[in-house]
Design goal:
Elements (H helix, E strand, L loop, with lengths): L1 H9 L3 H10 L2 H6 L17 E4 L6 H10 L5 E7 L8 H9 L5 E5 L28 E5 L18 E5 L10 H7 L6 E5 L9 E2 L6 E6 L6 E2 L7 E6 L1 E2 L6 H7 L5 E5 L2 E2 H4 L16 E6 L4 H12 L6 E6 L7
Parallel strand pairs: 1-2, 2-3, 3-4, 4-5, 5-6, 6-8, 7-9, 8-10, 10-12, 11-13, 12-14, 14-15
Protein name: F-box domain-containing protein
Organism: Urochloa decumbens
Pfam family, one: F-box
Length: 326
């Protein structure tokens, strides 16, 4: 039976064999070596192979796969980097940068229930910035190295996910430079990104989806976002000397879907009215709000948003338990 299956696969054109192997999970692709002598090392020469490793994979296994795979380009690479494998990640990134990798997903093990880690995460190798063919980049709980001199950007990057990332100190505008160097960026997810310098302006000409989650506003601003369709914004606290919350809303006034966690703002608690710019959410179809029902200023903001959304179809309002509401 196995011989007949192997013969069937071997009779297919080579490009079809490659496509079958590309669609298989990596462990299954490697197991095809048992089909026949002709397939013993077939997976090693397949271009565009997806390298995704289950949690707990020994780093030596990854070293061996990258060494054996001679097919050139790698379509994607995914790995959960624990303490035992952190020292290997640099070599992997160097190898991937030379193979035209299109997708990288590197994460750290997460406790359950999820809590923000206070440990210092490992620093990624600078070759991460040499992966010029990246279409998707997902990084969770790492320190980013400084941008290299002459950083050419990510010319074809469409999806950028950064969670609990620490930017290098004394490097003003690093995240802004990464976003600016990604002209095709369509999806941007920023969650608890720590920028010691602050003052980052988020603007991207082709961005369609933006998620911004932060414990406090450290000079983050939204710039020009002409194509934005959906925005999720969770900022726990605004200081009175930071940008007006109304300015942030004005920058996303064209969206069709909006999720807002109304922040605790010192100005609001001092009785200062929220200065809402004269704009209307003409395109807004779905609005989800998280507010403190015992905070009058937040209630007023909610009513102002509803009044400014004439075409709203879907509304969801939930109590923000972190604000001390009862």
């Amino acid at each position: 039976m196995e011989a007949s299956v192997a013969g069937l696969f071997s009779s297919l054109p080579e490009e079809h064999q490659d496509e079958i192997l590309r669609r298989l999970p990596l462990p299954d692709a490697v197991r095809t070596s048992a089909l026949s002598r002709a397939w013993r090392r077939r997976w090693e020469s397949v271009p565009g192979l997806a390298l995704s490793f289950p949690n707990g994979t020994p780093p030596g296994v990854v070293d061996g796969v990258l060494l054996c795979h001679t097919g050139g380009a790698v379509s994607s690479f995914a790995f959960i980097v624990d303490n035992a494998s952190a020292s290997h990640a640099g070599r992997w990134l160097v190898a991937l940068s030379r193979r035209g990798v299109q997708s990288i997903d590197l994460r750290r093990p997460r406790p359950y229930p999820r809590i923000l880690s206070r440990r210092r995460p490992p620093t990624l190798h600078s070759s991460i910035f040499s992966c010029a063919h990246l279409v998707s980049l997902h990084l969770q709980e790492f320190c980013l190295p400084p941008l290299p001199v002459g950083f050419a950007g990510f010319p074809v990057l469409e999806d950028l996910y950064l969670s609990e990332i620490k930017l290098p100190p004394n490097r003003e505008g690093q995240l802004q430079a990464i976003i600016h160097g990604s002209p095709l960026l369509r999806v941007l997810y920023l969650e608890y990104v720590q920028d010691p310098v602050g003052g980052c302006v988020i603007q991207a000409p082709n961005l369609h989806s933006l998620t911004f989650i932060s414990s406090e506003n450290k000079g983050w601003r939204f710039g020009e976002l002409p194509c934005l369709d959906a925005c999720i914004c969770y900022v726990d606290e605004y200081d009175e000397d930071e940008q007006d919350f109304g300015e942030l809303l004005a920058r996303v006034a064209q969206v069709e879907e909006l999720t807002l966690h109304l922040p605790w703002c010192t100005e609001w608690e001092n009785g200062v009215n929220v200065h809402m710019a004269p704009f209307t959410f003409y395109n807004l179809k779905s609005l989800e709000l998280s507010i403190a029902f015992d905070c009058m200023s937040q209630m007023l903001v909610m009513f102002s948003l509803l009044k400014s959304s004439p075409n709203l179809d879907k509304l969801k309002v939930q109590r923000n338990l972190n604000m001390g509401s009862s």
